[in-house]
Structure formats: structure tokens, C-alpha cells
Design a protein that fits this description.
about 20% strand, about 425 residues, Rossmann fold, eleven-stranded mixed sheet, single chain, two-stranded antiparallel sheet, alpha/beta
């Protein structure tokens, strides 16, 4: 009888130990603490805004009466407060459902994201230390979402920037509007040359203009004292833009096409878009943070007999019809750095290192084959982002923007021949 009781106690102990190990593994592989505390002197507030631009027709629908709609999340310097910390993301249950479907994963593996807290507070009182703050627009990557770089948005806001992230409908994984409507991503087939060309046109003709619509919104609330907590706070004489992937390409194109844009930063995006960067480079500050060395990012001008068409599975006649576009596309990759453009190679990074995604689980960096720890990479990304915009918009020079190389970063300024 005593032996039987001992066996039962042992079995219960083993089961409890296994349960404890399972719970510990669950918390390790599906963490709910993702972010480091922002390092700036300000608390961070956040709000969301719905925007319809009545002057712009929606490109992706057949109804000529449809107007372009946007969903914005704004992070900003906030006054000291005791408000609760905001949850990560917006409309997370819907987004998790869409993420699970697109990646063919059980939604259970993503549900922990609904419990993640950020370092922002909803509707916090804006800080009053300065009369106004410079503005940064953020443009997400294709098939991602407006809050994909919360690690970066909160850091920038804590250092005195109003950061407006644009959720681009049909380019984001899923856009949910306040009335419950859902818009999924347009299914770009980038292996098709025609679709690739169309995507380049969308960068320039839609995403750049989305940035203009966001600035128009900020201008309206700046002029309408009392109708919004940001009235008068946004300094629209100091505007920059950053983005990831095609969002970074949109930032670069905006530097050419949007006169209010004073500086642009591209997070590991190929310089897509149809506007030509001059051979002398941008006339305003530009930086690219990238996962590959500068030399590997440069495309040689496409020659008629290069075999490019055969690689894409399209006829040489079609390539010839788009010769001007292809020439611009190839030359833009180097023209962007002429005249002093910054290229920062983050060693050991991959394309998604520049987003929140590797924080979702320690398995993600392993799957991405990252060779740099995610939180170290994010600190470096934030350091260079702040150095760049502080110099461009706050006129604060930084030694980080000099040519240099370390174990983690190589900074190139201008083209090698300059």
C-alpha cells in the first residue's frame, strides 16, 4: 500500500514537472514581452485615425466614386502620465487570423501577440516641453502592416518626433477600418514582369501620394485649433519619411516627388518606383539601412542582350517596350548614393530583422538565419535612424554618419568613385 502511494506521488511529481517545463517552453517560444523601454526623455502616446482623401480615386476598385482611404497610427512625445500601456497593434484578432491563413499556420501560434504590451499609452496628453515636434511618416512593407516597426516608432517618439504610420490598403496584409470593413492585400505576383512593373507604379503613384494625404491631414488639424490634440504640435517645416522594403522605396520616391519631404530613410528596400533619381543623387539627405554590403546592392545597367527577359520568362520585345523603366530601375540603385547618400550595412541581418517580426518568437531569427541578435540589431537600427533624422531635421551632427566599419556595421557615404 505504501509503495503504491509512493508511485502515485512520483507520477504526480513527474507530471507537474513536465507541465512546468511545457509552460516555461510556451512562454519562451511565444513571448509576451517583446520590446525594450524607449531611451528618450519623453513618455510615448499613441492614437489611431481614419482618413479619407476626397481628392483621390481608389486605384484598386472599379467604382469611380471610391475614394482613397487610409488608417493611421500615430506615436508622439507625451507628458508624464500613469495611463495603462497600450496593447501591441490594432485589430489584432483579425490580423492574426489573416497572418495564420497567409502562412498556413495555426492561429494558436500567433495568439500570444494579443497579450503583448507596448511602452505607449492611448490618448496620452502630448508633451508641452516644445511648441512643436518634427514629423516622420512611416510606410510598411508589402504584405505587412502599419505597426510592424513599433520598436522603432516608440524610440523615435521618445526622442521628440511625431511618427505617423500609414496603413496602405491593398498593400498591407489586412486593413481594418473603424466601421469593420476589411481589405486584404492585393495578390501581387512579382515573378511576373507585368506585375513587377505594376508594383513599381503603385509605389510612386499610390504610396507616395498616401504620404501626401497624411501630411494634408496634419496640416488641416494644425490649422484647426481645438479639433484635435495634435493641433499646432506637428512642425510641417521639418518632415522626413522612412519605410521598410517597398515602404522604404516609397520614402525615397517621396524625397523626389513630395516637396514637403526633407529627408528619407530606406530600411532594406530595393529602390523600386518609376521616378528617376538624378545621376547627381538626391538634393536632400538620404540613408539606406541594409542587410547586404553596398557592393551587392548595386545593379548594373541592363544591356539589350543581357538575357534578362529570358530569366523573367518574358519576351525580349516586352523588355524592349519597358526599356526606359528598366534603365531607371537599374540606375536608381546607385544614383541614390551619389553626392553623399548614406549606406549602412548591418552585418548578419536579414530583410525582416528591420521589423518587429523576429521578436515574435526566438524561432523566427533562427528560421531567417539571422547572425545578429535581434535586440542588438534593433538598438543599432534605432541609433542610426536617430542620428540621421537628428542631423537632417534637428541640425544635430553625429559621428555615426562618418564612413566607418565595425564588427556589426559598415557605413559608406557617397559612391566609391566620389
Amino acid at each position: 500500500m505504501k509503495l503504491g502511494k509512493r508511485v502515485i506521488r512520483l507520477a504526480i511529481s513527474v507530471l507537474l514537472l513536465l507541465l512546468l517545463l511545457a509552460v516555461s517552453a510556451l512562454y519562451y517560444f511565444l513571448p509576451t514581452k517583446l520590446f525594450e523601454k524607449p531611451t528618450g526623455p519623453y513618455e510615448v502616446g499613441t492614437v489611431t485615425r481614419y482618413l479619407e482623401d476626397s481628392t483621390r480615386r481608389e486605384t484598386f476598385t472599379a467604382d469611380p466614386g471610391d475614394r482613397r482611404e487610409l488608417f493611421l497610427q500615430i506615436w508622439y512625445p507625451a507628458a508624464d502620465n500613469d495611463l495603462p500601456r497600450a496593447n501591441y497593434g490594432t485589430y489584432m484578432p483579425q490580423l492574426i487570423r489573416q497572418m495564420a491563413e497567409s502562412m498556413d499556420l495555426p492561429s494558436l501560434l500567433l495568439r500570444h501577440l494579443t497579450s503583448v504590451k507596448t511602452y505607449s499609452s492611448y490618448n496620452a496628453e502630448p508633451a508641452g516641453k516644445e511648441a512643436s515636434y518634427p514629423v516622420l511618416l512611416f510606410s510598411h512593407g508589402l504584405g505587412l502592416y502599419g505597426f510592424q516597426n513599433t520598436f522603432q516608432m516608440e524610440e523615435l517618439a521618445s526622442h521628440g518626433y511625431i511618427v505617423v504610420s500609414i496603413q496602405h490598403p491593398y498593400q498591407s496584409l489586412l486593413t481594418v477600418f473603424p466601421d469593420g470593413r476589411e481589405i486584404a492585400a492585393y495578390p501581387f505576383e512579382l515573378a511576373s514582369f507585368g506585375q513587377f512593373h505594376f508594383m513599381n507604379k503603385i509605389v510612386t503613384e499610390v504610396m507616395v501620394k498616401d504620404g501626401g494625404s497624411a501630411l494634408d491631414y496634419l496640416e488641416r488639424i494644425r490649422l484647426s485649433e481645438g479639433d484635435d490634440s495634435f493641433a499646432g504640435r506637428a512642425d510641417l517645416s521639418r518632415v522626413g519619411m522612412l519605410g521598410h522594403s517597398i515602404g522604404g522605396a516609397a520614402a525615397a520616391q517621396a524625397l523626389l516627388l513630395e516637396p514637403r519631404m526633407m529627408a528619407a530613410l530606406n530600411l532594406d528596400g530595393t529602390l523600386t518606383g518609376t521616378a528617376e533619381i538624378p545621376a547627381a543623387g538626391f538634393s536632400k539627405p538620404f540613408m539606406q539601412l541594409a542587410a547586404q554590403p553596398f557592393e551587392d546592392s548595386q545593379l548594373k545597367p541592363l544591356e539589350p542582350d543581357s538575357g534578362f527577359g529570358a530569366q523573367l520568362g518574358v519576351s525580349q520585345a516586352e523588355i524592349d517596350r519597358h526599356a526606359d523603366f528598366l534603365s531607371i530601375f537599374g540606375l536608381n540603385q546607385s544614383h541614390a548614393f551619389a553626392g553623399g547618400g548614406y549606406y549602412v550595412w548591418l552585418k548578419g541581418a536579414s530583410h525582416y530583422t528591420f521589423t518587429d517580426v523576429p521578436l515574435y518568437s526566438p524561432l523566427v531569427p533562427f528560421m531567417l538565419k539571422d547572425k545578429i541578435k535581434t535586440k542588438l540589431a534593433h538598438r543599432i537600427i534605432n541609433d542610426y535612424t536617430l542620428a540621421f533624422f537628428n542631423q537632417a531635421l534637428k541640425y544635430q551632427p553625429s559621428p555615426l554618419l562618418q564612413p566607418s566599419e565595425s564588427d556589426t556595421v559598415k557605413v559608406t557615404v557617397g559612391l566609391p568613385s566620389e
